[in-house]
Amino acid sequence: MTELKVEVDASELGFDAKRLRRIDAHFTRYVDEGRLSGWLILVSRAGKIAYLGLCGQRDLESGAPVQTDTLFRIYSMTKPITAVAAMMLYEEGAFELKDPVSRFIPAFADARVYRSGSALKPVTESLAEPMRIWHLLTHTAGLTYGFHHAHPVDTLYRAAGFEWGPPDGIDLAGCCNTWAGLPLLFQPGAEWNYSVASDVLGRVVEVISGLSLDQFFAERIFQPLGMSDTHFWVPDEKSDRLAALYSPQPATLRAVRNEAMGRVWRQCPLCCLGGDGLISSAADYHRFTQMLLRGGELDGVRLLSNRTLRYMTRNHLPGGVDLESFGRPLFAETTFDGIGYGLGFSVVLNPVANKVLSSSGEFAWGGAASTAFWVDPTENITALLFTQLFPSSTHPLRSQLRQLVYQALVD
Fold this sequence. Notes:
By secondary structure, the protein is of the alpha+beta class. The protein has helices at about 15-20, 20-30, 80-90, 135-140, 150-160, 170-180, 195-210, 215-225, 260, 280-295, 305-310, 325, 350-355, 395-405, and strands spanning about 40-45, 50-60, 65, 70-75, 110-115, 120-125, 245-250, 255, 280, 295-300, 300, 340, 345-350, 365, 370-375, 380-385. It has an 8-stranded antiparallel β-sheet, sandwiched between helices.
């Protein structure tokens, strides 16, 4: 495991150290007020760690503190890893972005699209065009999540056993066949909707590579990058490092342990999803973000061409519009104004429209337990936020961290 520590005086990287300490003061209040159990924040520039802060407990009940080797559920921060995996295969010529998904998952050839009606009697129509790989990478495939609770198709997902995860006893291939038999929310490419698209993309990775998704991640990404603490499960010998999961008590917003959602596997599960499920450490995900910042390469290991990564982090929404214009106003791990979407990442198009201090071209994503990362190629910055508060919409932690990082940058 890579040791985490501040590697250079912050002033050498263009930061005002006194201003950086505002991060401590601000986020410590969340712990003091009982709204977060604990947190870890890391900020790097030019590949050097300029700030590393820890506060509170990884387990309130036992009093175990957050430490640099604490393990966190990263939920949807699994999605960018799946996007990288898919584009590694793209670089090998395994598919084209316009290829139909049905080339790899035949059940999607017969997909139908919701037109009207209730969940009990949906009226559907045929596909105007096939669901394509780029639709999966951009969440424009017409798929959805059961937890949205906003549309009859969401209800059908829940009825099939899909709300916050797959039902027991089904693998990723089975999940995809079930989703293919449910109506799409809209015609592929017509809108943006946060969805199981990354899970389906993970199955495409499995079909092409002949490996299970956990095997592909381990052999092609985690081992080469030295990410030894990232898995879809927590081995027994690492279980004491896992942070507990908490949710806000409705009346007070104080963090209360969430045992139901906090369950993790002790060995590789039957269904490893491309959209969520990984457990990771700050050190591991820091290496992943450093690979992204460096254009697909880290310490002599190249996963992607820098041209491919630049292409992935451009806005791929039709017409160059932002999510506010093209997306359904539902939960996602991003805000919508001034934000576009690439191949696996949100992309800042207009910081003024977004009303958060940031840089155009910054790309990012987060997880349902309030974890987050961003990569800013303009300022040469990566930042990581780790905590375990579910859901991530409880507090504006991500925008506040951006404010505090960029106000400390003074070069």
